[in-house]
Amino acid sequence: MKICQLAQIIDARFVCGEEKKEKEISSAFACDLMSDVLAYVNESNGALLSGLANPQVVRTAAMMDMSCVVLVRNKMPDKKTIELAKQNGIVLLQCQHNMYTACGLLFGAGLMGDRG
Amino acid sequence: MSECLKFSYLVEGENFDGAGAASEDTKARLKRLGVSKEVIRKVAISMYEAEINMVIHANGGKADVMICPDKIKVVMKDTGKGIENIEQAMQEGFSTASEQIRSLGFGAGMGLPNMKKYSDSLDIQSQVGVGTVVTMEYNI
Ligand SMILES: Nc1ncnc2c1ncn2[C@@H]1O[C@H](COP(=O)(O)OP(=O)(O)OP(=O)(O)O)[C@@H](O)[C@H]1O
Ligand SMILES: [Mg+2]
After folding, report:
1. Are the beta carbons of B16 and A56 separated by less than 8 Å?
2. Which CATH superfamily, name and number, covers B5-139?
3. pTM for the full model?
4. Which CATH architecture has domain A3-108?
5. Do residues B104 and B16 lie in contact, with contact meaning Cβ atoms separated by under 8 Å?
6. What is the pLDDT of residue B2?
7. Which ligand 1 atom sits nearest the alpha carbon of residue B131?
8. Average pLDDT value over all residues in chain A
9. What stretches in chain A show pLDDT beneath 50?
10. Which residue of A has its CA nearest to B47?
């Protein structure tokens, strides 16, 4: 699905990268543990859902060639995190839903998990 | 060997937010050099893990990268506290990271196993109280 469709399904707002909203997302991974993202994500151009909002979440996504980071539970990214997302061309989204609900909505809409 | 491209980074110890900048820059350079996606991915993941380790366990250090026609070599050197038992540290799940580091998303004890998985050779030399040198090589 496209990033804009993903955003619509979970009522997310674009923090940065809205110009990439037509980009296709291949799959998703949800985790607060960056070590696990580094160990288990296999597909590129995926979305990372996380309740952590520090620069390393964006950096980890960039290392894995993921396209999009979704911050759940209204987590506010700081300036550095937003700057880093812009630098790395990562779309940063923020939504009100908690992790469980955000994942459930996206899975229900057909976005599959990373086939790690 | 004269055809090798070499560059280095200083990795700051007390700067968690900046951790990964060296790996990020290396990844961008490899991309510009036209290195294959699979190799870039291997280097990026394993170097990033080593760089994070250097920041959270060893107060920073130095990263040397060498790109040759047939291989890439990454050497991460620190003068931190050292690793007491390397075999134990290599086990999935073993970590001495603090609660604070865990709350930042690291400290699952997956870094060293990941570095082994994503490099073609991994060598760790460490001495308690002296420091650690992690060398990783990748075939192109
Ligand atoms: N450069 C280093 N200097 C000192 N100790 C280190 C260094 N690198 C690793 N260690 C030790 O080895 C342990 C295992 O490292 P590893 O990278 O596998 O896990 P971690 O860093 O604790 O967690 P994760 O990598 O999942 O975030 C660390 O907890 C630490 O005790
Ligand atoms: Mg580690």
Report:
1. yes
2. Histidine kinase-like ATPase, C-terminal domain (3.30.565.10)
3. 0.95
4. 3-Layer(aba) Sandwich (3.40)
5. yes
6. 65
7. 3
8. 96
9. none
10. A63
